[in-house]
Amino acid sequence: MRWFARRLVFYVFAIWVALTINFLLPRLMPGSPLAGLLQHLDSAQLAGNPGLIQTYQALLGGGNHSIFHDYVVYLGHVVRFDFGISTSNYPTPVSEVIGRTLPYSIFLVGFAFLLSFVLGTVIGMVAAWRRGRVVDNVVAPAFLALGALPAFFTALLGLYFFGLQLHWFPIQHAYDSGLTPGFSWAFLASTFRHAPRSADAEPTP
Quick one: CA dihedral 22, 18, 82, 62, positive or negative? Predict the structure, then answer.
């Protein structure tokens, strides 16, 4: 029980640190989300709508408040799963933007976990059964070396060799055009069909 309590405290602390960094990084960077929105408007639109800047500030939660006040408000919104308005997909809520791709991300993570579990188990069994052979001396160490690399770097290597060079897998989307990512049988069946996509298939637009 004590072990579970320590792990729970650790994960709560890790989540708090991640949220705090997520709060501080945009405020330490030059520029602001408001400036990013306003750069898509021309001077005539700004001149014709003098209160537009104040409206955008209110929508994005801006104001003349202390950073501690903004931090407390930010944590309160996160607890209520209110992530505000997306600046890159304005005026779409952030929760809606996440919801569009979350099912596909969950499927990718699940498929990658299943594939790594099957490959790791099979290679480990063959390496133990045929000790001192090619799998034990070459293949297993090669996978161990890849496992020591950062995941994003390994993913880029996989995209380059298996997607661009060998054309085994699509390098974007990987589900039928016209489908919207979501928890539906049509979308899940499409992603499952495209996951082990053959080399002679054309990329999905």
Answer: negative
From first to last of its 205 residues, the chain has per-residue pLDDT tens of 788 888 899 999 999 999 999 888 877 777 666 666 666 666 666 666 666 667 666 666 666 677 788 888 888 888 888 887 777 677 778 888 888 778 777 877 888 888 888 888 888 888 788 787 777 777 778 877 777 778 778 878 887 888 788 877 666 666 666 666 666 777 777 776 666 543 333 333 3
Token representation of residue 47: 């001149």
CA dist 122 and 140 (Å) reads: 11
Q: Where are the alpha helices (DSSP H) in 60-166?
A: 67-79, 94-129, 134, 140-148, 151-158
Q: The tokens 């390098």 sit on which residue?
A: 171
Amino acid at 62: G
One-letter amino acid for residue 156 of the chain: L
Q: ∠89-92-93 over CA atoms, to 5°?
A: 120
Helix (H, G, I), strand (E, B) or coil at 85: strand
